[in-house]
Amino acid sequence: MPTAALYFLPTTSADASPLPDLINRLTTHYDPFVLPRWSLRQRLFRSTPAPRTSDDNVPATPARHLQILSLPDDHPNECFIIVTPSSGATTDPAANVISLPAGQSTDEFTQLLVSRLGPLWQQRQLLAVVDGLAYEIGDFKIKAGELKQGVGGAQLVRGVVVEVTYLGEIGPGHDGDQTEELIMAFWDELDVKGAKEFRGLKTKEEDGFDNVRLWSMALLLKG
Read out DSSP for 166-202? Predict the structure, then answer.
């Protein structure tokens, strides 16, 4: 399975996106092959806090997060429901992941959350990448796009998300750590400052959803 790392570059002002500088660095250092555009969509819900007890020795129940995540570039026929136990445990690779058919089934689940389970789950944000850019450079695939929050004309650019995937063969005696080192070296060569990095997600699950968990972690902890 290809190894990937995610990077989040926050905006420094409302009208200054890091994307043009990143693309300029890619095209200056390399001669990338342009790939089809890509997108993602995340709808985030947070569990309603339980009423506090009068006993100060009883800790408050930590909030849980539920994400509805669409990654049509990698999973064109599926959407994913990811439930993480609390904001302090989102790095747990065992976050529960459920796959639903994209389209009507996901829409019905979302409507159920909003209309029937609203007292239990509060909608927090809607994030999306539309028409993201993608390139192939040697053994690497790079996807970059502006991460926007909200809908319609009220959208706010929160920053740029970048996925770097190593597509090369992993020979005998090589492991994921060495592949991650190749990704880190590639990213360091671009000399991009201020990025928050997400990588090295280890899981014993064999459901094929490692990249889904990595994306969900990055979108939740991007800051």
Answer: E-S---TT--HHHHHHHHHHHHHHHT--S-EEE----
Q: Give the pTM.
A: 0.86
CB 211 within 8 A of CB 4: yes
Task: Please give the order of strands across the beta sheet that includes 121-137.
Answer: 96-101, 78-84, 65-70, 33-47, 121-137, 140-149, 156-166, 3-10, 196-198
- Strand blocks (E) in 31-171: 33-47, 65-70, 78-84, 96-101, 121-137, 140-149, 156-166
Instruction: Decide: helix, strand or coil at residue 59.
Output: coil
Q: How does 183-200 read in b/e, with b if 16+ C-beta sit within 10 Å?
A: beebbeebebeebeebbe
Each of the 223 residues of the chain gets a pLDDT tens digit; together they read 568 899 999 988 767 889 999 999 999 989 999 999 999 999 999 888 776 666 666 566 677 889 999 999 999 999 999 988 764 444 555 578 889 998 888 888 888 888 888 788 888 889 999 999 999 999 999 999 999 998 777 788 999 999 999 988 776 656 667 888 899 999 999 999 999 999 855 554 556 788 898 899 899 887 6
Residue with tokens 């009507």: 104
